[in-house]
Amino acid sequence: MAGKIRKGGDFLIEETICQDVFTPEDFSDEQRAFAETTEKFVTEEILPHHEEIENQDFSHVVAGMRKCGELGLLMMDAAEEDGGLELDKASSMLVGEKISTSGSFSVAFAAHTGIGTLPLIYYGTAQQKEKYLEKIISGEWCSAYCLTEPGSGSDALSAQTSATLSADGSHYLLNGTKQYITNGGFAELFTVFAKIDKEHFTAFLVEKSFPGLIVGNEEKKMGIKGSSTTQIILDNCRVPVENVLGDIGKGHKIAFNVLNVGRFKLGACVTGAAKMALGEGLRYANERKQFGRPISAFGAIQEKIADLSAAIYASESLVYRLAGLLDDKLATIEKGIPDYYEQYQKAIEEYAAECGISKVFCSDVLAKTVDEVVQIHGGYGFCSEYPAERYYRDERINRIFEGTNEINRLLITGMILRRSMKGELPLQSEAMKAFEALMTPSFEEIDTSIPFATEKVTIQNLKTLFLILAGAAVQKFMEKISDEQEILIAAADIIIQIFAIESAVLRAEKISAGLSQARREQLAAAVKVFTFNATEEAASAARKAAYFVEEGDTLTMILSGVRRFTKYDAGGLLSAKRTLAKAAIDAEKYLF
């Protein structure tokens, strides 16, 4: 456990020491065993049936889920007293990362173990768990989550599905249509959200066998073709009153809290997919020859490989840093107390902004990775005979799943600003200090003999810049800042890059001492390459935000601050890229 339990968002104003950060190098033997079990399962049980699954022979998916149940992979989040393993989030995320190499099967797995199971675990009564949970965590039944409707996606509370109590008071009659339901074609239990009397947003546990539940046709999708995605139509669907999940009128708590979990788990899954895609690109680059040489020998290809390797390293570092934050916080809750899961959800909600960061950053890294892997393949990357084409199609949904990346960017900044306005995060006082720093010239020299000192100064400068821009925006727009979506999104892009750079640097600082000289050089190269690229992105977002917020002399002053606080001495950048690329090309896989 870390020496200090962090508050959500406090990384923007407080220093984190590397010893308090969880990294993949900290995995226990038990966690590594789960990873190996998952990898073996994918290799032996799923990949041999890949083509059938892609052609929507869901019998292999259902059989695979049952095998997952036998291996204990579906019960990691369930309490021990309910028959589960109740493992930490790092273990859960590691399994998610390893399952991602199974292609479309991973979508079914993630939906089942996340949004399909967690509502029952967190909010189910003892009777509901006794009736359904063992079936779900054993893989006997598959589960699904029904929130989205044809007319409501991100605006979930505008859902039109209704629930009306029957005359005898024994059932609710549900009417409406749910859209884009993962596992819809073969799930046996659905968590359905509906408004009782068209007003009280409430969750229900609905069995496939209940009269009035109709499974629609499979959607014809761009990617993840081997996953089931259907409409679920409710036509006077009879749901017993004892199947109300949680409190009447409090369905939004279930919907949004479970999505926070889905976001950080998705971060782990897409990181695993990015590693797999990079490996495919490396193998092809070594095999494909042009002008008498493998294309991996050319600088244009090597730069892509270096940039992707560094970005995936940052993605992995960020994901497991968040796992550590969550596990440290959850470990403070006493098990067995009456409101355990209420406290549990509050602990996860503490890091809602970080969960959004994980989802956005990691899915963007996967998007960049698969795009470049197609580019490395050239024309062959556009042909379905090569895996690169499927990776490209399958990736696209991840920036829409679990709330679009745009919505998540708004949530990241909005959540942090709300915490500030409630006095939970002293951003206002820190913003005043940042403005003072803007007005005060700095002649401090960096002691480059200290590992990663240059990067640490850059991180602190980016935090100062964010505080300047956030302070200016809040001062100008006050409580109406929530309506300024363009500003919030630009601010989120700065926040995201700060958290990602810091995660990469802290991990490197923590582990480098125990590495060989060659590995330390590769690690330092990854940090330099990523910090340069991420700082450039943060600088672009900061300039945009400055133009959005200010004008005249104040704008000129802030733009000078942007130039000052986004300076990063990336001396030796080309050498670092070549070091990183050569190591990845030789290994033909993700390095770290």
List the uncertain runs.
Answer: none
The tally of strands reads: 10
* Overall shape: globular
List SSEs in N-to-C order: HHHHHHHEEEEEEEEHEEHHHHHHHHHHH
* The CATH C-level class name of the largest domain: Mainly Alpha
> What gap, in angstroms, lies between the N and C termini?
23 Å
Mean residue pLDDT: 96
The radius of gyration computed from the alpha-carbon positions, rounded to a whole number of angstroms, is 24 Å
Counted up, domains total: 4
Determine the CATH superfamily of the largest domain: Butyryl-CoA Dehydrogenase, subunit A, domain 3
Q: What's the quaternary structure here?
A: single chain
The biggest beta sheet reads: 8 strands, mixed
Task: Give a description of the structure.
This protein is globular. α4 (89-99) crosses α8, α11 (352-377) packs antiparallel against α12 (387-395) and α17 (517-549) packs across α19. The protein has helices spanning 29-46, 50-54, 59-71, 89-99, 104-113, 118-123, 126-138, 251-287, 299-330, 340-349, 352-377, 387-395, 405-421, 427-439, 453-477, 485-511, 517-549, 552-565, 573-587; strands at 143-146, 162-165, 171-182, 189-196, 200-207, 213-218, 229-240, 244-245, 289-290, 293-294. Strands 1, 2, 3, 4, 5, 6, 7 and 8 form an 8-stranded mixed β-sheet that branches. Helices cover 56% and strands 10% of the residues. The protein has 4 domains: 10-141, Orthogonal Bundle (Butyryl-Coa Dehydrogenase, subunit A, domain 1), CATH 1.10.540; 145-245, Butyryl-CoA Dehydrogenase, subunit A, domain 2 (Beta Barrel); 251-320 and 334-405, Up-down Bundle (Butyryl-CoA Dehydrogenase, subunit A, domain 3), CATH 1.20.140; 418-587, Butyryl-CoA Dehydrogenase, subunit A, domain 3 (Up-down Bundle), CATH 1.20.140. The chain has 19 helices and 10 strands. By secondary structure, the chain is of the alpha+beta class. The longest helix has 37 residues, at 251-287.
